Amino acid sequence: MGMDVGGESGGSMASPNVVPLIDILLVLIIIFMVITPLTPKGLDTLVPQPSPNQQQSQELENKTVVVQVASNGKLKINNEDTNWDGLGPRMEQIFKERAEKIAFVKGDNDVLFMDVARAIDIMRGAGIDKIGLITAKLEAGQ
User: Cβ distance 75 to 105 under 8 Å?
Assistant: First the structure.
């Protein structure tokens, strides 16, 4: 197998020995077959869990801060009337002792985006890390 002897010219003829090469390739194939299922695939996700009782839902509702921007320029923080000048200090007061600084902005259908952006800017200035937008479709559950 290492060498072919004889032939038409009568001399010896050398040919490469491929058996060790095939053995190495088989070992590599086995190694890759073992390693492949261990590699992580996809992204980590968190699935929303249903609340076990109504009390936890009520606590979550008390923690949620929603700033409502009306089309006539009025502002509400969780159904509490406020104005543009008082929005920043009130948000700082609400989030002063909270670890999670998350709030939401809800605008009427007729409100200009400039007003919503102004509310977001004031909230970011008050130290709120994450600000979400609530739309009518999101509120309806669609």
Answer: no
The CA distance from 67 to 46, in Å, is: 26
Q: Does 62 fall in a domain?
A: yes
Q: Is residue 26 part of a domain?
A: no
CATH code (residue 69): 3.30.420.270
Contact (Cβ atoms closer than 8 angstroms) between residue 91 and residue 55: no
Evaluate whether 19 touches 1 at the Cβ level (below 8 Å). Answer: yes
In a domain, 42, yes or no: no
Give residue-wise pLDDT tens across range 44-75. 666 666 656 655 555 555 678 888 998 888 89
Maximum Cα–Cα distance for the chain, whole Å?
A: 107
Global pTM?
0.54
35 domain-assigned: no
Q: Tell me, what DSSP letter sits at residue 9?
A: S
**pLDDT tens digits for range 96-139:** 888 888 888 988 888 888 888 899 999 898 888 888 888 777 77
